[in-house]
Structures are given as C-alpha cells and as structure tokens.
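Input (structure):
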C-alpha cells in the first residue's frame, strides 16, 4: 500500500504532500485545482510515463528546473525526477540506471477520461494497450515486439527497392523472421484477451445486464500469415509495404450484438472501460503476485446517480484506491481530501 506521496514542482503543485491512512483515498476540488496531476504523478512514478502527455517537460512547473515525485509504500521509497536533462529514478535513495530495475515494483492501473479512446479511437490505441500491458508482465514480449518492428521496418524498406523481376532471397528471409516473431505476438495477444475477457465480463455484470465480449481481430492468424508472406508477396512488392500482419491487429468490444465503438452511449462506453480496467487490475495481480493500486481520475462524471452508487459499492475492497472528483461523497471509511490552492502551495 502507498503510505505517502510527495510532489514537487509537478504541474501546478509547488509542494504537495499526502500521508495516507486509509485504503480508499478520495480527493475533490474545483476544476484546475490539480486533482488529475496528483494521479498523474503517481502513475509517472510507477511507469516513468505520463498518461496524458508524451512531452515530459510539460510536467515541470512553469519557471522551475525539475519536477519530482516521491512515493513510499510499505517497505520502499520510489523517486523520479524529470528535468531538461531527462529522467532519473531511485529506489531507497539508490539511483537505478536500468529501467528494468525501477519498473514493476509499484504497480498501478489508471482509469482516465481519455481511456474512452480505447473504444472510440483508432486500432493503434488498442494495439498499444495490448502491447503495453503484455510487456509489463512479460519481459520476453518486449523483445519479440521490438524484433518484429525492426524486421518489419527492414522488410518495408526493401519492398520499396525491390523489383518484380529481382531475386527474393533476402525478402524471403525477412518474411520468415517476420512470421516467427509475428505468431508469438498474435498468440500472446489472443491469450491475453481471452483471459481478460473472462474477468471483464464478470466485472461488467456488476453494473449492467447487457452482454459484452472482447473480440480479438487479428489481421492474420498463424496459417494465413504464413500463406500471405509466401504466396501474396507479389502484392507487398506492388504496394511497396507489408500489407498484413499483427501490426494491423485490432480488437473490439461486442455490446449485445453490436460493436460498442459506434453503438454505445458515452456513459455506457465509460462503464465498459471501467470494467476493462478492473479486469486488467485482476489480470496483472494474477500474473505478477503483486498488489496493484487503482487510480480513478474523474470516473464518476457522466454516470447517472444510480450507476455512481453501484460503482462506489462495487469497488474492489481488497485494493488500495485513489480517486478524485469535483464533488465530495458521503461514504464511510474513506480518507477525504479537499484540494485547495493553499494545499498545493504548502511549504515543507
Ligand atoms: N507545467 C505546469 N506548470 C504550472 N501549471 C500547470 C502545468 N501544467 C498544467 N498546469 C495547470 O495545472 C492545473 C491543474 O490541472 P489538473 O491536474 O488537470 O486539474 P484538475 O484535474 O483538478 O481539473 C491546470 O490549471 C493547468 O493549467
Ligand atoms: Mg482532472
């Protein structure tokens, strides 16, 4: 469990310090008071990434030199500092130069409003979701993914040069390599979505009677990918790019008989994504044997009162949860924090 959080020069927080004394923390405050930034800080210290920007200098408070997050859990202290020179991470005050030494200890799952893109966005968003979650729990997945991308790039640049009459020896070699790595990705993604689907359905049922399913849409299966790379190589040569493979994969959420991307309302989509995140939390725990902290950013908005009540009642009790909203709620056994401008600027 996270025991304390310190943000320094992080977004609008000059110094924000929070000692946690209950498993369920609820932060409320007006728009722009820095609620999302607190969750972003925790996420950043867990994953070394922001969930809302790829430009990490944005995290540094205006006119400051660095931003810092320090998180203490039961027995460790994690620290991340970002400046214009890059990022540095420490565990128990000892610098960790290798990302792999820092990652994987403080596990979080975040729900944020832009996660609706998982349903509404392009296939790229869903491929990134599958890849990001898989590589977190299985380091070998990252190797296969990187090799696949490298071979794909080589093959595509060769396809731009090669002529229909040329000798295809090297193209064939690259095709074989692509296939070898590609089927590992396809099989791992399939297994991930199969396992996630079971947990997802169970979580979604708590909110609604609708029938939902995660449906993997691999661009190719094992057999057809091989066939394509061999028999339809001519097409790739004509189009000068690798037309098929796991780099074109997708999945969708079937909602009753429909594709939720075009069918479900904003509120329904939100519940689907929330159930997906709760499933993900259970999935990561089952794979890693580590406790996962749930971060919920503005999760209640766009849910009607009844759905909000169900949601708060069904929140997993055995997990640490840190959530925020604009309004306070009436609930026992939670640590309520009102975020005010004064709090953000507290001097230590
Ligand atoms: N690097 C930064 N320096 C100073 N202020 C920032 C920085 N980045 C964002 N902000 C400001 O921080 C405020 C808090 O943002 P946010 O955490 O999203 O608020 P909330 O979630 O409470 O609505 C916003 O008003 C934003 O303009
Ligand atoms: Mg916010």
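Output (sequence):
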């Amino acid at each position: 469990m996270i025991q304390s959080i310190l943000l320094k020069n992080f977004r609008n927080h000059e110094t924000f310090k929070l000692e946690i004394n209950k498993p369920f923390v609820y932060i409320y405050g007006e728009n722009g008071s820095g609620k999302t930034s607190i969750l972003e800080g925790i996420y950043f210290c867990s994953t070394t990434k922001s969930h809302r920007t790829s430009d990490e200098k944005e995290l540094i408070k205006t006119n400051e030199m660095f931003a810092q997050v320090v998180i203490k859990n039961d027995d460790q202290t994690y620290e991340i500092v970002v400046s214009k020179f890059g990022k540095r991470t420490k565990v128990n005050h000892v610098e960790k130069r290798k990302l792999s030494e820092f990652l994987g200890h403080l596990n979080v799952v975040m729900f944020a409003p832009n996660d609706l893109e998982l349903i509404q966005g392009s296939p790229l968003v869903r491929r990134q979701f599958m890849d990001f979650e898989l590589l977190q729990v299985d380091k070998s997945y990252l190797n296969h993914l990187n090799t696949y991308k490298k071979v794909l790039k080589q093959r595509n640049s060769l396809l731009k040069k090669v002529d229909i009459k040329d000798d295809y020896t090297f193209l064939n070699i690259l095709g074989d390599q692509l296939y070898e790595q590609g089927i590992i990705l396809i099989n791992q993604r399939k297994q991930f979505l199969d396992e996630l689907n079971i947990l997802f359905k169970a979580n979604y049922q708590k909110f609604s009677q609708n029938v939902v399913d995660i449906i993997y849409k691999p661009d190719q299966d094992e057999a057809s990918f091989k066939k394509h790379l061999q028999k339809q190589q001519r097409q790739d040569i004509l189009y000068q790019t690798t037309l098929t493979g796991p780099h074109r994969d997708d999945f969708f959420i079937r909602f009753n008989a429909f594709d939720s991307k075009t069918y479900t309302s904003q509120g329904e989509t939100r519940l689907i994504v929330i159930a997906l995140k709760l499933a993900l939390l259970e999935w990561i725990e089952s794979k890693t044997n580590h406790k996962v902290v749930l971060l919920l950013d503005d999760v209640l908005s766009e849910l009607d009162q009844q759905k909000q009540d169900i949601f708060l009642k069904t929140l997993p009790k055995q997990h640490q949860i840190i959530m925020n909203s604009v309004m306070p709620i009436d609930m026992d056994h939670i640590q309520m924090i009102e975020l005010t401008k004064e709090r953000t600027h507290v001097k230590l």
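Notes: The CA atoms of residues 131 and 242 lie 20 Å apart. The first helix runs from residue 35 to 47.
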